[in-house]
Amino acid sequence: MEKERHVLVIFPHPDDEAFSVSGTLAIHREAGTPVTYLCLTLGEMGRNLGNPPFATRESLPKIRKKELIDAANAIGIEDLRMLGLRDKTIEFEDDEKLTSMFTDAINELNPSLIITFYPGYSVHPDHEATARAVVRAVERIEEKIRPKLQCVAFSNNCIDELGQPDIIHDITGIEDKKVAAITAHRSQTEAMVLDWKEKFENQDADFLEWIRKERLWTYKF
Amino acid sequence: MKPIERTEVQNAIDSFAGQDVYLHLETTNGAYATHVDEAFFSAGAYIRNAYIQYEHGKIIGDGPYRIGLKLNIGWVYAEGVNHFELDEQGRLLLAGLDFSGKLAVSMQLSPTPFE
Q: Which end of chain B has fewer CB atoms < 10 Å from its terminal CB, N or C?
């Protein structure tokens, strides 16, 4: 993996980072590269409240904030910024306000790499709106000094339309940090991770492929 | 939250009647419903901090429950409600959790605005 000056990660929900690129980020951190994570919301609208429920609609954001901090610690992220927007409202925010939030961060941090979702291929309206705003912010930077923009895509049509991802990071050896990051988001992932220990022990091929290979597409302007 | 106790919920509904309260009302099937099943029609609605006053309200059914509030000039209702909590801020939090524990509907009343 190329050594970066500074990695800026922009996602709307606590746990977006854990599933998509926590291994990649952990590798950057182990290499001493600074990583800043802008997390737009606290996932206030999450549907998982525990089963039986240990959260309510009103306590969920407080719980998820703690989970996000734990996940960032598991990955080694030292600069976690919670932007205070509300889950499921990103696409209704003022577009220019979002763009300038990201422009300001880029100007402050001067990242060599920005990671977000791929607009058009990331399913959730918050992912899409975040991605569009990041693209607008990056597009405005003069091409020769523009940071790399790498995107997470997982819509059903993403391979058909974007082709195979041009970046695949194999995070074998660092799975523990990724599992710790995902597990930190307990309110959302508790049920999902129940059989993971067994899958690791059984060397479940599909599971290992899924957890070890982090796939990104370089954004085409 | 715990499973609905009808009398307790009815008493809480009664206690808010005739005064200004803030309402949170939400239905959702999750943002990934159509991603998981392309034949699924995704729909939901959300309102936070509507400022209302109702004349009376009722909880009806054998569980999951329906809850309706009669306003001077309208109505509020939710169905599929099966869990509740009266929290430390004096708010009535009602939720309908599906068979896997995921929130499907939420209806909440508070004397002060929701954050």
A: C
